[in-house]
Q: What sequence folds into this?
């Protein structure tokens, strides 16, 4: 899987480089295979990974990573991987803090999430010289729980700014120079019938340096073609680059993925 995903995403190594904001959208298709690939590749490259999940527990990610040749428990023990349970953070904030209004609850939740991520980055930078990686899976859950897409968008924007500021503050602007800025990967599900989720995806796609949209086929389910993936490259933080676009179809297996042009599936040739 690794080499094929890397080729498709134009990764020089097995994982996202520095200062990338990668937005992954999924609509009637499963785009989480990209999340699992990025996690396992980053761990293999000795990168530090902070995963904030609203959809799965640690066991799920560890089980899939082991199939891809990575043990997240070992990485956790080495302070190379930190798993943050987003739903636990939400529960703690809602029931511990005295919030008299919806607005204050939203602020309290987003502040707690940012604090957890930023404190994790601080620990990473004390123990490693690698460029850290922050992953959020799946941010659209916040919209499903009643948080407005505008509020979630503001949270993402502020998180990006605070991550950059925290790293520069710890490493120093001379040492950083843009090369130590962590990459952030955010997966967001959306449905055309849900305007809030569509708005959030469009916002994430707009601010991203790479947007990857994983969708089902317009013709419906097919056992030989599991969906279509569209990737668009924009400028990344302080690094202009040529904009480009790729569209391919794909088929998933337990530990691999095949990419091919539309209508070029091996099953139909």
A:
């Amino acid at each position: 899987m690794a080499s094929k995903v890397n080729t498709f995403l134009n990764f020089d190594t097995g994982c996202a480089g520095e200062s990338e904001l990668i937005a992954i959208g999924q609509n009637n298709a499963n785009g989480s295979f990209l999340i699992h690939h990025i996690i396992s590749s980053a761990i293999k490259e000795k990168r530090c990974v902070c995963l904030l999940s609203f959809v799965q527990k640690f066991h799920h990610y560890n089980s899939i990573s082991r199939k891809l040749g990575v043990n997240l428990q070992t990485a956790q023990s080495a302070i190379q991987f930190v798993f943050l349970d987003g739903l636990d953070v939400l529960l703690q904030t809602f029931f511990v803090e005295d919030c008299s209004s919806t607005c204050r609850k939203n602020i309290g939740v987003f502040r707690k999430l940012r604090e957890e991520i930023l404190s994790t980055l601080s620990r990473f930078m004390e123990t490693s010289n690698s460029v850290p990686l922050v992953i959020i899976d799946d941010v659209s859950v916040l919209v499903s729980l009643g948080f407005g897409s505008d509020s979630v968008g503001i949270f993402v924007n502020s998180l990006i700014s605070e991550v950059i500021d925290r790293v520069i503050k710890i490493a120093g602007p001379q040492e950083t120079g843009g090369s130590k800025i962590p990459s952030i990967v955010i997966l967001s599900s959306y449905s055309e019938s849900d305007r809030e989720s569509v708005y959030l995806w469009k916002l994430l796609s707009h601010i991203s340096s790479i947007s990857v949209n994983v969708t089902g086929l317009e013709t419906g389910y097919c056992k030989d073609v599991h969906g279509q993936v569209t990737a668009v490259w924009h400028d990344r933080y302080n690094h202009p680059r040529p904009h480009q676009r790729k569209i391919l179809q794909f088929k998933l297996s337990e530990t691999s993925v095949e990419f091919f042009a539309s209508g070029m599936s091996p099953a139909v040739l």
Summary: Strands lie at 21-27, 49-53, 81-85, 133-137, 183-189, 210-215, 227-233, 244-252, 257-260.
